[in-house]
Amino acid sequence: MHKYLSLIKISFTAQKNFIPVLCARVFFLLLLVCIFNQFWHIVKQENAVSALINPVDFIWYLLIGCVLQYGRAEGFHYRIEQEVKSGNIAYGLLRPVSVIGAYFCEAMGTFLFRLPFLFCVGAVFLLILTNGELPTDFSALPVIFSLMVLSAIFISLCTVFIGLSTLWMQDALPMFWLIQKAEYILGGLFFPLSFYPEWLQQIAFATPFGWINYGVARLIYDYSSVNAVETFIHILFWIIIMICVNMLFYRLLVRRIAIHGG
Amino acid sequence: MADRKQHFFARLIQMSMKQSYALKASFWMRLVFMIVSDLIMMIGWYVMFESFQTINGWNFNDFMFMSGLNISAFSIWTLFFRGAGIRMSQWIQNGEFDYFLLSPQNVLFHASCCVSEPSGWGDFVAGIGLMIASGLITVSTFGIVVILFICAVLCFLSVNFFLTAINFYFKNTVDLTERLFYVFFSICGYPGSIYTDWAKILLITIFPAGLISILPIEVLKNTQGFTLLYLSGASITLFFGSILFFYRGLKKYESGNRTILRG
What we know:
The complex is a heterodimer.
Chain A: H1 2-14, H2 19-46, H3 55-70, H4 76-86, H5 89-92, H6 99-129, H7 141-164, H8 166-169, H9 173-186, H10 198-206, H11 209-217, H12 225-260
Helix pairs in contact in A: 1-6, 2-3, 2-6, 3-6, 3-11, 4-7, 6-7, 7-11, 7-12, 11-12
Chain B: H1 2-20, H2 24-52, H3 60-80, H4 86-93, H5 98-102, H6 107-113, H7 119-133, H8 142-169, H9 174-188, H10 197-204, H11 210-213, H12 215-222, H13 225-250
């Protein structure tokens, strides 16, 4: 366990060298917030259901989802793909740490560095943008942040899964696109799932995406301990599933590399 | 002479396509998954438009047309000019651009056309499909739609040429220019009607994402001759302006000393 914690720490520390890259992400995040701020204000102005819409709540909702999007290690699946294609992944098998574990720790270290940074900058920007108006359940932020870390664990596991899919698909990109778009839609990244029809909501909640994004972000305007515990249990469940899937992939990986001679 | 040049570029595009088709399974998978992922995105917006009907005067059909135009124009860049953008930026920054300078062909188009991305076919199919499904293409509007499509392609190419050329002027800007392109592409992906006042002015002038996401729908819905004229003029000016900017920057290019072999 100590080895893995050290890997997380190394990846975390390495991120300090990439502050300009992070600033570019912040710019992108703030731009998106501005676009959707405009969007929700227009929707509120011209729609009969405007009583249900509080732009401030939805902008904070978007911020939480976007921090989870932009906080992740970019192109990480591509790196794993290259290592699988070149066969360099075989060298990793000789090391005293699991290859998959090492990938996960690296992705997680990056996430842990970026998450608070992006969130704080985004939150300050939002407070300025909304003239200090707070979302309905602002006091739930500590709980939300803890659940975001849990979501980050799932997302990092998912990134490793995408990279390893190269073993069967020759290419990690199609799987990446599919999961990314599923996250956008089934996770309700831009629009809360409550706007979706019942059947689509059911599909979303049957996948992990509905919980890691919508489940966490909705707490900013619809907090209750029941909602928080429900989200916590579901994310935990999907983390366990993803760990099992990755372990299975690891076994198949070892067998496949052994067959091909490394 | 002109014929030989055209032949060269046709062969170059053909070769880069063949190269992208070398991994057949990957090619087809990218194509299919790209169509699927484009359509998945539309579901999200469909749900939104179902809830609110219109967003500042735009309905779902308008949005579908705008997305189709955006995606299909983007696909022309990924299919035929994928070299422009990140690849060319890297060649410039690493001093690996000499290969193209030594060739007797047009430098910008030679470097742009030598890479093709197979997922572009998926975008192309999805984009054209969305435009047709929007119901905004009729016999009377077909000509205008073709002009809008050409303008959108020119905008994408111009922005790519312009951002690539920035690498001649400044060092270590590969990441920055790549991200700026995706900012541009993302802005094009939201309903143009949400950009009002100063944002709209900014987007149809300095940061020309509005030429793809705002003006085409205004032209189609209100049959505005002046807007179409402005859109065409702006796209052409932008295109030639970006080429000029590129060649000016090329004079600042510093060669590297690496030995590069390119097939």
